[in-house]
Amino acid sequence: MTSSAASRVPRVTSRTAGEPLVRLSGVDKWFGELHVLQDIDLSIDRGEVVVVIGPSGSGKSTLCRTINRLEPIDSGEITIDGQRLPEEGKELARLRADVGMVFQSFNLFAHKTILENVTLGPIKVRKQSKAEAERRARELLDRVGVGVQANKYPAQLSGGQQQRVAIARALAMDPKVMLFDEPTSALDPEMINEVLDVMISLARDGMTMVVVTHEMGFARRAANRVVFMDGGRIVESAVPETFFTNPQSDRAKDFLAKILTH
Amino acid sequence: MDFVRENADLFLDAFLTTLGLSLLAGLLALVLGTLLAAMRVSPIPPLRGLATFYVETFRNTPLTVVFFFIIFGLPQIDFVIGFFPGAVLSVGLYTAAFVCEAVRSGVNAVSGGQAEAARALGLTFGQSLREVVLPQAFRTVVPPLGNVLIAMVKNTSIAAGFSVSDLSSLLPRLVNADAGDLTLVLVGVVVGYMVITLPSALAVNRIERRVAILR
User: Fold this and answer.
1) CB distance B117–A108 less than 8 Å?
2) Where is the ABC transmembrane type-1 domain (chain B) (predicted)?
3) Which of A62, A105, A107 to mutate to test the interface with B (most CBs of B within 10 A)?
4) How does pLDDT run across B100-137, given as a tens digit for each residue?
């Protein structure tokens, strides 16, 4: 395999017709001198689960964070459901409400109870009544298996429980797409599965998901597509089966050899 | 002792003046200081610049000069203000600069992930600040805010130089009337200030314990 072939991105044909839900075209971003995202083109269809993998520093987290503009981009265009990401202000806030995000470090609001964490967005952003928001929050907390913890504070929960609350908090906004930025990387090994199980059930229910992760098992079981990044570029994009058994680029082969040998 | 007792009414009036001045100026300083802190962390450069200018101006100007400006300077531009309201304004505006910096240090102590999570939910900048960042910031700055407010109560004594009959103004008045009771008058005035500051310090300690959050 030559390096020129490696830099060509194999395209996976879209599974549904029409406009993709998320589209990045020609996206570039610099951190000072560092060109962290280089001419990124990526389309994500409704109901698609895209797993982004790659070595640390490859730009995968940054890519994920540009989709709701937690990281502004320097050039290119990002659209969500056909709408261009606004620069700042109320328009951006409205669009972010439709994009759920789950962070590596959970980021639950430390001064609010579990229930309040989940109802804050629906009450303040969606203008739901408190009763309505709480009813839905309890449903979601039960669904992710932390219903009995509703009145506790985040610090009283384990990491796995906190991350499941964070997923419920994002779901409470009825998002069109969910972003997961290394959701299991800060967890003790025995808690990883309880979070992945929730994510797999979400994927089965048809949620559109972008997942930055090192969990290859999740990628194999739940992803429609694996995107491999290195050095700020999308090097390879393929269905999991193809990517894991027959990677095209040298860099992907090298990466897989390193992580799959132990 | 008789001398102090004879002037009990005067003491009470002076004490109430200092108390009122402290409460009103404190309220102004807390509200304005918090607003300034919000401006200093906002994403809008002109707001940041304005708040920074305010803080550096008031923080680096002696309080006596602020009093002069408010009470004698403003009438030059046809804005006449009474001595007591002028004192409230002077102490409040001055202290707001210190409150701002205390609150801002608290905002900086709240982890960036908290604000990111709030923004990711679709909360506006103002909502994130109100609902998520400031409530946590205040919890960490209760002790320094207590310091600022106690210093403020003592700073109100400068009002005595501007025709406000507060506790400090008793010193020259009563000492001139009967120099022999200097010590008693001094003790009376100090006790007057302590009646305001000591309970404030205790209140700060209680608030600190009550609002402490697990992280």
Assistant:
1) yes
2) 15-203
3) A107
4) 999 999 999 999 999 999 999 999 999 999 999 999 99
Q: How confident is the model at residue A12 (pLDDT cuts 50, 70, 90)?
A: very low
CB of B126 within 8 Å of any CB in chain A? no
- ipTM of the complex, rounded to two decimals: 0.86
Do the Cβ atoms of B213 and A105 come within 8 Å?
no
Q: How far is A131 from chain B (nearest CA, A)?
A: 19
Distance of CA B25 to the CA centre of its chain: 6
Calpha distance B59→B92 (Å, rounded): 12
pTM of the model: 0.83
Minimal CA separation from A122 to chain B, in Å: 9
Q: Is CATH 3.40.50.11740 what the domain over B2-211 is classified as, yes or no?
A: no
Average the pLDDT over B38-51 and give the result. Answer: 93
What are the residue boundaries of the structural domains of chain A, listed by start? 22-260
User: Which of A55, A48, A53 has its CA nearest to residue A64?
Assistant: A53
- The residues spanned by each domain of chain B are 2-211
Give me A240's structure tokens: 């999991």
Measured between CB atoms, does B141 come within 8 Å of chain A? no
A182, A213 in Cβ contact below 8 A?
yes
Residue type, B45: P
Query: What is the tens place of the pLDDT at every residue in A17-40?
Result: 568 999 999 999 999 889 999 999
- Using CB atoms, pick whichever of B114, B119, B127 lies closest to residue A109: B114
Q: Band the pLDDT of B2: cuts 50, 70, 90.
A: low
Class of domain A22-260: alpha beta
Under a CB-based contact definition with an 8 Å cutoff, are residues A79 and A22 in contact? yes
- From chain A, the residues in CB contact with B116 under 8 A are 70, 103, 107
CB-based contact (8 Å) between B179 and chain A?
no
pLDDT in tens, B5-36: 777 888 889 899 999 999 999 999 999 999 99
Q: What is the mean pLDDT of chain A?
A: 88
Cα–Cα distances in angstroms (integers) from residue A186 to residues A246, B121, B181, in the given order = 30, 21, 70
